């Protein structure tokens, strides 16, 4: 397809990320990379689907959004509903049960991404044969690592089940609290393996750290670019994945916004619409759409927080930050290292919580206070900052929902990563070579994007490759199971 | 090999996406029946850690919605297979779950895949289409009879399947032994 002399090459989907994505690389008349676009299959119509539903259904309803991270949506909606009913200050048991659920989700998600999606790139290198550079290769060469990945994921899922009641459509978080505590039997069962999980998480962190340091020259420039970084942090600046206020820093670590209440997000963040995609591009109003875009997720969280309140993860954070003289890291591939610091932090928090008797408390729900017609909640999901904004009417029905998901926040950054990688590797040829395809995939995967449409019945066609000429004529199309 | 002499029925799909919820719906129906020697579980999708669970059982029945297969359902024997399996997302195929069970946990349970034909997938909604409900009822009947007989048989051509999910008497057997 030609637009203003640009030629477009389409690659779809991006493999080994969540769901399906399609990448377009736009070339100028001299066959240099002009622009890169990551097209994402979006959930459309969900906000409309929940309009008119009673607000107390939201924590369960929003889990239908995504089969990948339903817990993040469940908890973020629950936090918003806490505010609607005026019960945002939870009982110790209510808050700690929710935090345990959240750290379980974080732990299992990071473990799965690292061991089964990212580790082939790190263990075998980007240039290893495709036949080897996948999880099957990991199972063959490193079966114990693969086994650890499966069991870490399983452990996180067991925490989710114990705190939310069930794996599908869990109902744990309810307005103002939680509907169950953690029984002594459940606690003891989870305690049996927690030290093993800590040990494995530390091992995974070492792999990510060593890989980054051993290949620092290559990864430093790979899909790398300066950016702003955004997350929520605690009042004292500590990393807090469950609750906090917004903070953004620039590429040098200078403060852009700090301690902004979630309810004021609309004053500091706007979303730009672009004609070629339904996906929006969030940016910081203070800087504007051109330069105000930001990254979210593990790398951003390590960059924005002042410290981590668990000892092993904090030691790892300090080593990570020392590499950039305590300034933010803008290296895309450093997401992997940052993600494993968070996995270690999550299991440290899980251990801390499992030894906390508040989890066996009976005071599960806070009394309701002043009813509000609108509330905004923000949580740090595995992939980054997740915002739920709801308005409800006097009949308790949802009248407006605005959800800004993590992958949307990283939209511009992923486009830039692809553009950088394509510019570095395309070298004037109208051809998607195997190395280029691999490198684009590796660059996008670092962000752990969730492109899932959450339906996956047998019979769907998961892979299609389309090649169009500069006038939009179809040159080739290939598909496979 | 597993120490549990039970059948694990593992359904997956998104109940919030219409007929995509056929797998969990079958699991719910079986749970209500309360059959002996059966453990049921469901999730949005199959994932790596299912391999650790599957490894504990003598037999596993995977249940999913099927967009294009024969109505009301098909039932086929499964073998472990990593090659050709989709590892493009957090979701993995049932054959890949079996392969992981074999390679990482040294267990190879007898495994079956039940695909229940669905028709409506592309909207949000917590209901099954009318035709999917009919197919579900017949699939539940089949699974119940197979579990009670403690024997599963492949059903690839469903033209001769009676309303109760079993083959019609006096007609050519639609089933094949694995």
Account of the 3D structure:
The complex is a heterodimer of chains A (481) and B (178). By secondary structure, chain A is of the alpha+beta class. Among the domains of chain A are: 7-41 and 410-480, no CATH class; 90-166 and 179-218 and 335-364, no CATH class. Chain A has helices at 46-50, 58-61, 70-84, 92-124, 135-141, 143-164, 184-214, 216-221, 265-268, 298-304, 311-322, 334-354, 406-409, 411-425, 434-445; strands at 7-11, 18-19, 21-27, 33-40, 173-174, 177-178, 228-233, 245-249, 255-260, 269-272, 281-284, 294-295, 374-381, 384-392, 398-404, 450-451, 463-468, 474-480. In chain A, the strands form 7 sheets. Chain A has a 4-stranded mixed sheet. A 3-stranded antiparallel sheet of chain A has the order 1-3-4. In chain A, strands 13-14-15 form a 3-stranded antiparallel sheet. In chain A, strand 8 (245-249) and strand 9 (255-260) form a beta hairpin. The model of chain A is unreliable at 11-19, 453-469 and 475-481 (pLDDT under 50). With 178 residues, chain B is α/β, with parallel strands linked by helices. Chain B has a single domain (4-176), classed as 3-Layer(aba) Sandwich (Rossmann fold). In chain B, 28% of the residues lie in helices and 24% in strands. Chain B is built from 4 helices and 7 strands, in the order E-H-E-H-E-E-H-E-H-E-E. In chain B, the strands form 2 sheets. In chain B, strands 2-1-3-5-4 form a 5-stranded mixed sheet. Chain B has a two-stranded antiparallel sheet with strand order 6-7. In chain B, helix 1 (22-33) links the parallel strand 1 and strand 2. The longest helix of chain B has 20 residues, at 130-149. Chain B is globular and about 40 Å long. The model of chain B is unreliable at 84-89 and 169-178 (pLDDT under 50). The interface between A and B is large, with 47 and 46 residues.
